[in-house]
Write a structure and sequence with these properties.
By secondary structure, the chain is α+β, with helices and mostly antiparallel strands. It has one domain: Sandwich (Jelly Rolls). Helix content is 14%, strand content 33%. It is built from three helices and eleven strands; from the N terminus they run E-H-E-E-E-H-E-E-E-H-E-E-E-E. Strand 2 and strand 3 form a beta hairpin. The mean pLDDT is 92.
Length: 194
C-alpha cells in the first residue's frame, strides 16, 4: 500500500464522547458544492488539530470537517472518488467512530484506475478537465478500477491519505438503520499550516 497512507489506532482519547456527539446529529441529505450527499452532518464541529499535527509532523490547518453516517440502502453521489472537490484540502482523514458488526468487513479501499494506471488525480496543470470528468463517471462502478489497498474499519482508528488519492467506502453497502447502529465516521480535510 502507498506509504502516504497513515493508519493510527487509538487516536482519540475522547472517542466515546465524539461518537455520542455524532449519534445525536441529524443526518438529512446535505448539499455541498452543488452535489447532494446523504448521511452528512456536523460541519465544523470537531477537529483534533494538535493530534493531527503530531501525526503529520507539521502544523495542520483545517479546511472542512463533517460526520458521516452510512446505513443500509443509502446512495452515494460518487463511489470511487478523490477529495479534491474540497477546495484547499491537501490531506483527508477518516476516524472510525464505531466497529462494524462482527460479520461485516467494512473499511476504506484505495484504488488504481486501470486505463491510466493512476492511484491519484494529477494536478490540474497536468491533465484535462475531460479526464477529471471521466474519473467521476468511472467512479460509479468498480469495473474501471483495481483495489490497490484497504484499511479495515475499527473503532478509534484514524486513516490519513492525500486528498487526491482515489478511495471509497468498502464495501459499497453500509450497515445499520440509524446513527445508533450505522457506519459512523468523522471526516476531516486539512492542509499544511503556515
Amino acid at each position: 500500500m502507498d506509504k502516504t497512507i497513515i493508519v493510527i489506532d487509538g487516536f482519540a482519547p475522547d472517542i466515546d464522547g465524539v461518537a455520542d456527539a455524532a449519534r445525536s446529529l441529524d443526518y438529512s441529505p446535505m448539499v455541498y458544492e452543488g452535489v447532494e450527499y446523504s448521511g452528512m452532518s456536523g460541519r465544523g464541529m470537531y477537529f483534533p488539530a494538535a493530534a493531527l499535527s503530531d501525526a503529520m509532523g507539521f502544523r495542520v490547518a483545517p479546511v472542512e470537517t463533517i460526520f458521516r453516517c452510512g446505513i443500509v440502502g443509502d446512495k452515494m453521489a460518487v463511489w470511487i472518488h478523490n477529495d479534491l472537490g474540497v477546495a484547499g484540502a491537501e490531506w483527508a482523514a477518516i476516524l472510525y467512530l464505531t466497529d462494524p458488526p462482527a460479520h461485516d468487513s467494512s473499511g476504506t479501499a484505495f484504488w488504481r484506475h486501470v486505463e491510466t494506471g493512476l492511484v491519484a488525480q494529477p494536478s490540474a496543470d497536468s491533465f484535462s478537465p475531460e479526464m477529471a470528468q471521466q474519473f467521476n463517471i468511472d467512479g460509479q462502478t468498480m469495473r474501471p478500477w483495481q483495489m490497490d489497498g484497504y484499511v479495515a474499519m475499527r473503532k478509534n482508528r484514524l486513516v490519513i491519505y492525500p486528498a487526491n488519492r482515489f478511495h471509497s467506502r468498502w464495501p459499497y453497502r453500509a450497515f445499520g438503520s440509524s446513527p445508533a447502529d450505522g457506519r459512523l465516521i468523522w471526516v476531516g480535510f486539512f492542509r499544511e499550516g503556515k
